[in-house]
Amino acid sequence: MPAYDALIIISMALILIITEPLPLPAIAMFMLFMQVILGIDTANNVASSFMNDAVFFIMGSLMLAVAIVSQGLDKRLALGIIKITGHKTWRIIAGFTAISAILSSFIGEHTVAAMMMPVGLTLVRYAHKDPRKVKGLTAALLFSIAYGATIGSIGTPSGGGRNVIMMNYWAEFGAGTVSYLEWMKYIYPMVLIQIPFTVLILLRTFKPEQSNLDSAVRKLVVDVARAGKIKAREWVAISLFVLVFFGWVFLSEDYGLGIIALVGVFLYLAFGLVEWNELNRKTNWGVILLFGAAISIGIQMNKTGAAQWVANVIINNLSQVISSPEVLQGSVSVLLTGVMSNILSSSATVAVVGPIVLDLGGDPILIGFATAISSAFGYFTAVAAPACTIIYSSGLVKSKDFLRAGWKMGVLSVLSLLGLALFWWPVL
Amino acid sequence: MMSKHSLINPESLRFLTAVSSSEFSRPTLAMGSLIASVFDASLGVVYVGEKANEFHGGAVNLTRQNLETWDIIHPGLDVLKWALQELKKLNPENTDLAKIQFNTDHVFEEDGRIKIIMPDKEDGRIELILREGELVDQLRKEIQLESYDLAIIGGSQNKQHLAHSIIQYLPSSVFVLQKFAPRKKYKLLLLVDDSQATAKSVEWGALIAQKLGWPVKTLTVSKTKLFGPGYQGAADMAKAYFEARNIDVEQHFITGDPVSTFVDFAGDDHIVIMGASTLNPVKQLLFGSKPIKTLARTDVPILIVR
Amino acid sequence: MRISADMIFWIQQKRWLFIAFISGAILYHFVPGPASLSPEGYHILIIIFMTLILILKEPVPLPAIALQLIFWQVILGGSTPNEVGSYFMNDAVFFIMGSLMLAVAIVSQGLDKRLALGIIRFTGNKTWRIVSGFTAISAILSSFVGPHMVTAMLLPVALTLIKFTSGDAKSKSGLTAALLFSIAYGATIGSIGTPSGGGRNVIMMNYWAEFGSGSLSYLEWMKLVYPMVLIEIPLTILIILKTFPPEMQVLDTAVRRLIVEVAHSGKISAREVMTIVLFGFVLLGWMLLSEDYGLGSIALIGVFLYLAFGLVSWKDLSLGVNWGVILLFGSTISIGVQMKNTGGAAWLADLSVGLLTAVIPNIEALRAIVSVALSGVMSNLLSSSATVAVVGPIVLNLGGDPILLGLSSVIASAFGYFTAVAAPACTIIYSSGLVKASDFLQAGWKMAVMSVLSLMFIALLWWPVLH
């Protein structure tokens, strides 16, 4: 049965991703050709499911990151941020988390992760020439970006595609509508609560080796000074990026995030700001393959009904344990969504789980919120969320790191959601 | 107009020589080597090869990597190897140079082009650089990257089009060596007028005259019989500059069309030194400029100072 | 001042970019499309028009051209990004990705030295035998594994022989050209022999499947096309020896030194055996399983196995593959599919038939001539894969037998003998710096005539017997 085969592939892939006996791109290929061999779909269809706007986006943002770094813009941005946060490591981590969270609540986690990653990498490189000596610091910095972006992405409707999907479902189910500001009223407090706790988790889990980054900052200042005043080329590079940024914010409805990212890369190439040779060498193509493969398998899980089957199994089992319907709905939506969105993309998860959960009864708005929020709990694997994929592509964090911090984040988020649901929503 | 601080720092000059295939580049290399040694300066030797068509770039790279396991190197590297041997032949007394071996293990890619690192030397460092792509574009990038002061380029068959681009777009001073005969005793013809670049041209002229011992003449051309204060002042400054350094200089003042006069005067035994045009780039593109026209019509080496 | 000089330089360098986009904009906004063509089809043709200008003049690097091909489809063509994505990626793109990676994996094992030994032992040291041996072996090998691998492995042998032959470059220019072209032309004529011989073959198979035109199994393709390869081999050898007469009749010194050099490789190691065995599996998979699983998936399985057995590292693969090629592949295929879907391909097909009916009354001949001429000419400008991607849908809309017409188009796209652009093998030998563009022209026209005649021969005498 195709659904069963899809589940087999996913389980095998998950094990391979976490234990990492093979290079990840090999796992990506495995996921792709197994779909063909097990007869889930034809080669052409598997291929078609691989490439779509999301993969264009990952490809485009990774290439943009290479272009930005080749112009040295990341250094200037890093310096700018440090001026605000100061040199103490914990303040920098806090700053990154807060900035990523707040920005991503308005413009989406993808963009923020793509933007901030070169900056984070720059700081890491300046902290110590040998990245192995500063594993803790590296992980803390990169995860502050990824997790910051993820926790922020639930804050407003524009924070993520899944939010929009849920709003669509409410309309379809006749549950009413929620305005932009109402959404914020319901959910922003959770974002704000999570920021400090996330910082705490990061600092405790990854224990940065240096308590302040004075030497790194000094080197950074010297390098930026040596680069001199911002030259014409760099202004062009900055303006192009701002253009892409606005494109993401305003035009992504019409054209998709990915296409806009590709336009950005095209412009960088056309203006001669980066050579194709550099893009070819420095872009992490393995990660793009992995992402595409994960999306492909996600689509198959949907198409073959495997996703629905898993959902039903969980519900049936839980309903035997939990008698209270509200608690049942709550735990189902949170558990189901949280787990699945680490495998599928968060939008796909909401798309699949949304109807099931909304059917369970209860207040669809609250259940819908809970689902949308928990679909953002993509902390555990490199493919859980684009932000995670993006930081993973740096090659400086391992799958284990995702697990180590991820479970704590999961607990934090569930508790915050509980707190929000029990204390804040009844007030509203 | 002549500033107290000189515009050129003779202690830290960097020269760039562009070579093409081995047959045509001997004179260029000779001049590069000569200038670098008299100035005790570093010399970059760059070869700009043709870029493999992108459609099959991957296959070409794969093949090249495989070729390396057979000890067959990039054809551009072959040209650079030849260039190094020529440099050694041209400077037999330079023992440091003689010790340098062309070693493909010291090849590495940096800043988008391939560089061969010579073991560290204090003076007269030689750098061999391999680039791929369009000639003018790659030279621009190299000059911008390493801040060369002077680019020495051989005259080529495709004079018109290439000359235009080279003069207009290379950000350093450019020395176009047409029909350069290394052993010939040239005379320097320095074009003096009231433009900004004249000051620096005069400095270059003096430096070259001093180091190579070639006689200097200045030429000021006016379209009318009148030589205004700008022209006259410039010529006087030049004379003062040369005399302060004990260099004899002949001064000429001729009335006529500037470019034809330059060409006729230069004949075939002068090296012309002139400042780059100060015209708006768009006008230069459409109408040409004095340096461009001069280069098009004469066959002698021209140094265009920026 | 500095800034404006830079700007002027940039504008001058990129002028064709502006020309292409501005003409596209003018056509889009001000020039209405032909009545017989749907507006979407017209837009797709505008995109192709702009892309052709960009490819010919290259004001921006080719991968950038691939990117603009993708985003114009969304912005001008009105497709959604997911649609474009789904057309972009298919089995053919998997195949090109996989076969490029396999080439990297295999070439990096150093098997070419053993191959060289085998070839030289077989051919001996007479020049004409070496040239013939190279041609034949390049052709046969590349028909199964594709021209990249073969050229990458054989070129060092040829260059070493040349290196070890005494005399300066001029005195052995005939020999040099003969040896190099024997590899390049051999690999090119061979690459049509089986579906796995080249990415363009898989593109055509993909189109057949997508357009519902039928299909060919691996062995059926071979039956139809391999005889042509076998005919072309001796004719190619003749042409090469006549156009580039080698100065030396015997290469004994060079061969002796070559043997000394390659004999150092020692006993065959476990890695090398593993490499050959795994590749054997891939080949078997292509021959027997490709109808079910697709050539691309099988290629990916091969790459997976090489990675899993540690025969190659992902880093080497990622650096060795030029991802721009894959982007180009995918984007040209996506535009080809769009051409078909929007009716642009059908319109172009009708147009060409309409124009030429007056000149060529026989409709069968007309169709054949259009496919062959279009593919043959275009592939000298674009590469053969881009040609098949763009011309394929047109050819398949001409009517007649899509399988035979598609095959002729693929075969003709390999007739890119005049420039270094069309075939990877030609680009590779050109990049050695030892052959000139004029050499390509000298031999190219003869090869083109020979190939067209061979195709006619096969099409008129062999195909009717089988099909």
Biggest β-sheet strands, sense, barrel of chain B: 12 strands, mixed
Order of helices and strands of chain A: HHHHHHHHHHHHHHHHHHHHH
Rg of chain A to the nearest angstrom? 21 Å
Please state the overall shape of chain B, judged from the principal axes of the Cα atoms.
globular
CATH domain class name of the largest domain in chain B: Alpha Beta
Which structural class do the helices and strands of chain A define?
Answer: mainly alpha
Summarize the largest interface: chains and residue counts.
A-C, 46 and 54 residues
CATH topology (level 3) name of the largest domain in chain B: Rossmann fold
- What is the H/E order of chain B? EHEHHHEEEHEHEEHEHEHEHHE
Number of structurally distinct domains of chain B: 2
Reported for the largest beta sheet of chain A, the result is: none
Q: Determine the mean pLDDT of chain A.
A: 82
Please give the alpha-carbon distance between the first and last residues of chain A: 47 Å
> What is the end-to-end distance of chain B?
16 Å
Question: Strand-residue fraction of chain A?
Answer: under 5%
CATH superfamily of the largest domain in chain B: HUPs
Q: In DSSP terms, counting alpha (H) and pi (I) runs of 4 or more, how many helices of chain A? A: 21
Strand order of the largest sheet of chain B: 3-4-5-2-1-6-7-12-11-8-9-10
In a nutshell, what does this entry contain?
Chain A has 428 residues and is mainly α. Chain A contains 21 helices and no strands.
How would you portray this structure in words?
- The complex is a heterotrimer of chains A (428), B (306) and C (467).
- With 428 residues, chain A is mostly helical.
- Chain A has 21 helices and no strands.
- In chain A, 78% of the residues lie in helices and 0% in strands.
- The longest helix of chain A is centred in the middle third of the chain and has 27 residues, at 180-206.
- Chain A is globular and about 65 Å long.
- Chain B has helices spanning 22-39, 57-69, 75-90, 95-99, 135-146, 159-169, 197-212, 229-244, 258-266, 281-287, 290-297, and strands spanning 14-19, 42-49, 107-110, 113-116, 126-132, 150-154, 173-177, 187-191, 216-222, 249-255, 270-275, 302-305.
- In chain B, helix 6 runs antiparallel to helix 11 (290-297).
- The longest helix of chain B is centred in the N-terminal third of the chain and has 18 residues, at 22-39.
- Chain C is globular and about 70 Å long.
- Classes of the chains: A mainly alpha (428), B alpha/beta (306), C mainly alpha (467).
- Chains B and C meet through helix 2, helix 3 and helix 10 of B and helix 1, helix 6, helix 9, helix 17 and helix 22 of C.
